[in-house]
Specification:
Number of helices: 14
Shape: globular
Strand content: 15-25%
Strand order of the largest sheet: 14-17-18-13-12-20-21
Number of domains: 2
Bound molecules: 2-aminohexanedioic acid
CATH superfamily of the largest domain: Aldehyde Dehydrogenase, Chain A, domain 1
CATH topology of the largest domain: Aldehyde Dehydrogenase, Chain A, domain 1
CATH architecture of the largest domain: 3-Layer(aba) Sandwich
Radius of gyration: 24 Å
Length: about 500
């Protein structure tokens, strides 16, 4: 298992290619044992000013580096991440708690994103198109926006960061990144990798601190023209309001209330596996986690029985121990929120079939563990069927038919991910059309998005933008339309067209 030197335990900001200490720090805890193991800067707004200045200066040169050369550095970053995969994965488990197999998966997601976006360095396609006038040329091009701000959460501290940072970089922007202070290691490790890969100073700057101070300072910076945020709905709305006042572009991803639909013709064993993986993997702390199961009345009983049987086999504990399938919750506040929903669910009349309690794991008494939990007899109006719990908690809702299943899926304020288990091809096509979410799975759970497809959702999940995929480039580029008139005379569009 990995050990950290004393020096490695004290993190610093990364500004203009240098490690910068700050006056104030705070402790970071390992969620598996509740013990403090790191110190992270609690920066003030002056650090943000410094970072923005560095990024502003660096951006001028970076934008002039040909995109394929910017991409060469991304290839190097990907290669170093690959070499360091095991170290990164173990550190990720230490700071986030997710089981090591999932941590490796998340680091792989970051590596994939590096290579994928490096490929974009030779594309970044615009369009050429006929002009409506003779001897005239027309095309559209992508241009960098300038300095961009990135705010990332603790639940996927490396994958989500790469979804945002890498497209921004390859497109010629420079980046100010505020990672979550719950999981600061991944940002620090990535910054080391950037340096090793030869990324010019100031292209990516990491500033640690609270949302109230550093998040706010970032939004207030005039030089930052785009903010890409993943986090809570409440904070995302505030970010959007502030950015709106300044006409700053903002891309938001703010969670989900994702459902697996199980129809009467489904392969039940397959559905059970998919529900278990997407509901209890990462202890349910994914934006994409399954937190509702919408089940056809004919298979409700068997599904409940099979879920209860399989839930017994989920070993819970320290994520670095490979026998464990479910790791801890991120912190006490996370646990308290889940506990609150246990009370709410019971008061609303839902029936608790399994779990429902905080867990004490031997030798990890101070860790933040929670039992995988299944509520049944849930109705769509209940708060546990509507609000994001962000824990290993699933609510089972019974429906009479396919149409009702779709309606129940859509009757929440979020729209990130959804899934349907069925063998009926007509239902498959109707479902992918009618499920009102940004991601739809057929015969698979609600998690497992791949990086070359757009990630994000409808309604309260976001504001129309997407992370990852080529679509992320739209967040970090401005479109420019260019016309070249080589006729040698004045030609007026929409007027001189019949010449
Ligand atoms: C998140 O939950 O915020 O699709 C990200 C998935 C992962 C990413 C999740 N690839 O579950």
């Amino acid at each position: 298992m990995i050990t950290l030197s004393n020096e490695e335990k004290v993190l610093k900001n990364f500004i203009n290619g240098e490690w910068m200490d700050v006056a104030e720090r705070e402790n970071v805890y390992n969620p598996a044992d509740g013990k403090e193991f790191l110190e992270v800067p609690n920066s003030d707004a002056a650090a943000m000013d410094q970072a923005v200045e560095a990024a502003r200066i660096a951006q001028k040169d970076w934008a002039l580096v040909p995109a394929p050369q910017r991409a060469e550095i991304l290839y190097k970053i990907g290669a170093i991440m690959k070499k360091k995969k095991e170290r990164l994965s173990q550190l990720l488990t230490l700071e986030n708690g997710k089981v090591i197999e999932e941590a490796r998966g998340e680091v792989q997601e970051g590596i994939d994103m590096a290579f994928y976006m490096a490929g974009e360095g030779r594309r970044l396609f615009g369009q050429t198109t006929p002009a409506e006038l003779k001897d005239k040329f027309a095309m559209s091009q992508r241009h960098p926006v300038g300095v961009v701000g990135i705010i990332t959460p603790w639940n996927f501290p490396i994958a989500i960061a790469t979804w945002k940072t890498f497209p921004a970089m390859v497109a010629g922007n420079t980046v100010i990144w505020k990672p979550s202070s719950e999981t600061p290691m991944m940002a620090s490790e990535l910054a080391k990798i950037f340096k090793e890969a030869g990324l010019p100073k100031g292209v990516v700057n990491v500033v640690y601190g609270s949302g109230a101070t550093i998040g706010q300072a970032m939004i207030e910076q005039e030089a930052i023209r785009v903010i890409s945020f993943t986090g809570s709905n409440e904070t995302g709305r505030k970010v959007a309001t502030e950015c709106g006042k300044q006409l700053k572009k903002v891309s938001l991803e703010m969670g989900g209330k994702n459902a697996v639909i199980v129809m009467e013709d489904a392969d039940i064993d397959l559905a059970v596996e998919g529900i278990l993986w997407s509901a209890f993997g990462t202890s349910g702390q994914r934006c994409t986690a399954c937190s509702r199961v919408i089940v056809h009345k004919d298979v409700r009983e068997i599904l409940e029985k099979r879920l209860l049987e399989e839930m017994k086999g989920l070993t819970i504990g320290d994520g670095l121990d490979t026998k464990n399938k479910v790791g801890p919750i991120i912190n006490q506040a996370g646990l308290d929120k889940i506990l609150k929903y246990m009370e709410i669910g019971k008061e609303e009349g839902a029936k608790l079939l399994a779990g429902g309690k905080q867990l004490t794991v031997k030798n990890y008494e101070k860790g933040f563990y929670f039992e995988p939990t299944l509520f049944t007899d849930v109705t769509i109006d209940m708060r546990i069927a509507q609000e994001e719990v962000f824990g290993p908690v699933v609510s089972l809702i019974e429906v009479n038919d396919f149409e009702e299943a779709i309606a129940v899926n859509n009757k929440v304020k979020y729209g990130l991910s959804s899934s349907i288990y069925t063998q009926n091809v007509n239902r498959v096509f109707k479902a992918q059309r009618d499920l009102d979410t940004g991601i739809v799975y057929v015969n698979a759970g609600t998690t497992g998005a791949e990086i070359h497809l757009p990630f994000g959702g409808t309604k309260g999940t976001g504001n129309g933008h997407r992370d990852s995929g080529v679509q992320a480039l739209d967040v970090f580029t401005e479109w420019k339309a260019v016309y070249v008139d080589y006729s040698g005379k004045l030609q007026r569009a929409q007027i001189d067209t019949d010449a």
